[in-house]
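so my prof wants the structure for this chain in the tokens format not the other one, which i didnt know existed until like an hour ago. anyway here's the sequence
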Amino acid sequence: MKNTFWDWIWNVRDIEAPLKMKRSSLWLIEGDLFQLSNLGGFIVNIYEAMAAAQQHTFIVLTDHPERIIPVLYGKKGNFYLGGGDFLENIWHLTRVDNQEIANKRIPELLKLREISTGWPVLGVVVKPVLGPLDLTRYLPEPSQEIPFRINYLNWVICNGGSQPAIPEWVRSIRDQ
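here's what i got, hopefully its the right format
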């Protein structure tokens, strides 16, 4: 399925799909890879496939960023990645729709940079916009010259979703 932003939407049941394509592409993973029903072993298999397809960039969008570190880095020697390890071709985003959810999910996502500053993109998708949202504590000051990979969000995508959004809320997100 083609889209105007990413090249492919990846249904991970077809684990070989990205490996079959040689041309560099941007892939969005269909569904929430870190949903509670997905076991760690299944998720690790998907990460191994993404690691094997270095020519592509993968976007992992989840409502459960609190599961990323336990699954990828684990505890007591049972882990997929070691401390400081990362995969350069994987971007992690979490979905937020109001301030309460943002304050819960964004800090969990940003913990990835405490493990490794190498993760290239951490971001949020605001969809739907259910209320005013202040993301400034998760964003660098506009005038601040900062290295790309620090403990801030790199990306903010705002999509009203199926519900009409209050224009002022969307403008506020843009202005931040």
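also thought this was worth mentioning. The chain has a mean pLDDT of 86.
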